[in-house]
Amino acid sequence: MPEPVAEPAPAPTGPRAIFVQPEDGATVTSPVRLEFGTENFEISAVPAGEVTEPRPALGHHHVAIDAECLPAGALIPRAAPWIHFGDGSNVIDMQLPAGPHTLTLQIGDDLHQTIEGLCTTISVNVPE
Ligand SMILES: [Cu+2]
C-alpha cells in the first residue's frame, strides 16, 4: 500500500469576524445590506430561557454604526448603537444617513460578552 501523501497543513489562524458585505471602503446607498461572517468560529442563537453560563466557543453577531470595538470581556450594551443578532442571523438592511460611517462587527457569547479577537471595523461612505 502506498503511503497517503500528506497535504501541507494550512497555517493556523485564530477565530475572526468578517464583513461578507459591504467591502471596506465601499461607497454604498441606503438602505445598505450588511452581511456578517466568521472564520474558525461557530455562530449560534442564544438558547431560550435563562442563560447563566455562556457556552464555550459559540456566539452571535452584534453590529454598531459609528462605534469602536469593545474591549475583550466587555458586556455589549443592549442599547444604541448596538444591535444584537441573538437569533443567530447574519443579515440586516440598515438605513444610514449620508456621509462616512464606521461599521463595527463584534461577536458576543451567550451572555453578550465580547470575545478576544472577534471584532472588526470597516468604513463605508453614503453619498449625498
Ligand atoms: Cu448579544
Overall pLDDT level: 94
The helix fraction, in percent, is under 10%
Order of helices and strands: EEEEEEEEE
Percentage of β-strand residues: 35-45%
- Poorly predicted ranges: none
Structural class per helix/strand content? Answer: mainly beta
Globular, elongated, flat, extended or rod-shaped: what is the shape?
Answer: globular
Number of strands: 9
Q: Gist?
A:
With 128 residues, this protein is mostly beta strands. The chain contains no helices and 9 strands. The chain has one domain: Sandwich (Immunoglobulin-like), CATH 2.60.40.
Kindly describe this structure.
- This protein is mainly β and 128 residues long.
- It has a single domain (16-126), classed as Sandwich (Immunoglobulin-like).
- It contains no helices and nine strands.
- A hairpin with a 5-residue loop joins β8 (99-108) and β9.
- The mean pLDDT is 94.
- Residues 60, 62, 76, 84, 86, 108, 112 line the site of copper (II) ion (CU).
How does the SSE layout of this entry go?
Layout: E1 16-21, E2 26-27, E3 32-39, E4 42-43, E5 58-65, E6 82-84, E7 91-94, E8 99-108, E9 114-126
Parallel strand pairs: 2-9, 4-5
Antiparallel strand pairs: 1-3, 3-7, 5-6, 5-8, 8-9
The chain binds copper (II) ion.
Q: Which structural traits does this protein have?
A:
0% helix, three-stranded antiparallel β-sheet, mainly beta, six-stranded mixed β-sheet, globular, 128 residues, binds copper (II) ion, 44% strand, Immunoglobulin-like
